[in-house]
Specification:
The complex is a heterodimer. Chain A has a domain at 247-337. Chain A has helices at residues 48-55, 82-88, 100-103, 110-121, 126-139, 145-149, 158-170, 188-205, 216-222, 240-245, 250-257, 299-303, 323-335, and strands at residues 6-17, 20-32, 37-41, 65-72, 75-76, 93-96, 176-180, 208-213, 225-230, 233-239, 309-310, 316-317. The longest helix of chain A has 18 residues, at 188-205. Chain A is α/β, with parallel strands linked by helices. In chain A, 36% of the residues lie in helices and 21% in strands. The radius of gyration of chain A is 21 Å and the shape is globular. In chain A, helix 8 (188-205) links the parallel strand 7 (176-180) and strand 8 (208-213). Chain B has helices at 2-29, 35-40, 46-56, 62-70, 95-130, 135-149, 152-166, 181-186, 191-217, 220-227, 232-244, 246-260, 264-269, 275-284, 288-316. Chain B starts with a helix and ends in a 7-residue tail after the last helix. Classes of the chains: A alpha/beta, B mainly alpha. Chain A binds chain B through residues 56, 58, 60, 82, 86-91, 94-95, 97, 99, 102-108, 116-117, 120-121, 152, 154, 165, 168, and chain B through 218-221, 223-232, 239, 242-243, 246, 316-319.
Amino acid sequence: MTVPLLEVRDLRVRFPTEDGVVKAVDGVSFSIEPGETLGVVGESGSGKSVSFLTIMGLTRSRTAIIEGEVLFKGEDLLRMTNDDIQEVRGSQISMIFQDPMTSLHPFYRVGVQISESIRTHQKVSKQEGMEQAVEMLHRVGIPRPEERARQYPHEFSGGMRQRAMIAMALSLNPDLLIADEPTTALDVTVQAQILDLLARLKQEFNAAIVIITHDLGVVAEHCDQIQVMYAGKIVESGNRHDVYYDSHHPYTWGLLSSIPRMDEAAVGERLKPIKGLPPSLIFLPPGCAFHPRCPHRFDRCEREVPALIPSDGHHASACHLSLADKERIFKEQVMARS
Amino acid sequence: MGRYLIRRTLFLILVLFIVSVITFVVFVKLPAQDPAIRAAGRSPTPELIATIRAKFGLDRPLYVQFGRFARGIVPWPGVFLDEQVYFSYTNHVAVKEEIYSRVPVTATLALGAAVLWLAIGIPIGIVSAIKPRSIFDRGGMVFALIGVSAPVFWLGLLALYVFWYKLQWLPGSGIPPEENMIQAVMAGRFILPWFVLALSFAAFYSRMVRGNLIETMSEDYIRTARAKGISENRVIFKHGLRAALTPVVTMLGLDIGILLGGAVITETVFNLPGLGQYAVRSLLNSDFPAIMGVTIFAAFFICVANLFVDVAYAFLDPRVRYS
């Protein structure tokens, strides 16, 4: 068995606020193998971004209470000194963000910003840094990279800025790239380009990639493993086939049913959203956090928190329904539609 | 850029025109007493008053009177503050000459104070922003409140009382006429005025820097900078301050522009022969050519400072371009 690149054990992140303690991440465990692509899916506030910002040591609040272990190549990132984690950040784990419009510094040239990333971790001259930056811009498919490197972010379109962010993130050939909603702020046509680019670069750079998204459609094509998060917990995880064609959690069913369809059979059919709203992370419902919105709940769901239990080697779900029931309901109600 | 500058210069003339109209109406037409009578001295004869009226053109229609002044607002050598019209009748010196001899004093005061308030305000602002709600931040807040609340005239007199009268560490008010600016600075005559003038600005700037920096540090591009793995100091001082200090430059340009038109209270308290003192004296004497001159000159400085700030902004912020 290979050593996982990243192993997260029982990660908990809580933010004390005036209204109470927000349980943003509530006991999350998973691992990423080298070169793997993991998709993390969930609504806003499901804890998916916070989990990975915490892994990077970028949680904004000074008062956040963080527990658990984040082992990167066997070393716990949460217990590293600032200097050591700075060494890892950007060079071994890098991150791109949702909004490329605001993620680049408006006052510095794009090439300089990429070069800064390189020069932070490698002893190269300004000129070499700039040359490498131009090369990276070229590799992410930006035309006329020499010229573009001398421009400011406001002279780039949204898609081009995201490419520049990717160039910056990959400039040091990291082992893990975390993409936090990389396409959410972009036009649909550009979204596909960026995802294809990520898939291609993953091969070229041999990096593991995490794609955080609220859109199951985004992860469908590009991810090996998928985990679905709800209210700070992982509710289902498995490979692409498990989650799309053999899903075991009512929340995932809801997500699958709410993907709009354009085929003949769907003409005149209304979108099926998941009823209700995500719960307050301060006052979580007792038992399964999803039970107030779940059409298949029974009395046990209101009392007992379901554990994430594997039904076979790779496919796990956190739901009290029996495996037989899950398979039956999925076939009858979800698959039948699509 | 060229067209932009031309447009702004024309705009500057328009502003000076409006300022001169208002000043003319307020100080030349509204006063109850005929300026000519004031100018005539203690025992005016009707003939003398008539002569003066003729000399100042006060017997002419209003638009002719104003027209004489209006020519002087064009910022061009020989025309600007024309000596024939802008001529003080209290001490019989051309307004321009008086202003030019006073500019160095006011400039020394304003620029020195600006250096001081930046040197005090920016570091306090940075420390307060990096450690919000800490003892430094609270101390900075107290400093800011005192600095903003303490009136300059009170502070100035207090400083003179303590450091000149009691401790005798620093020279008192005024500059002997035989000293030039460099000698006056070397003699320490500007130290108290600089500190007193700088204090309220330093307080204001420290709060502004704090606010800007706190806001900048929550921007997405700061998170990107941190994600690159660069040190926190570099994140703050390179990425954070670069964006947080740009608005400070705007403010600084405007404040210096305003002060160059005369730091009225500070100059009065410390008896410095600057533009502010001249403005006060002209007002007290109803010396209307001098009032017109000094007002237009101050307005000119403020407009130029504005223009300078806008142009500087195009260099500081790559997103700003003028056409």
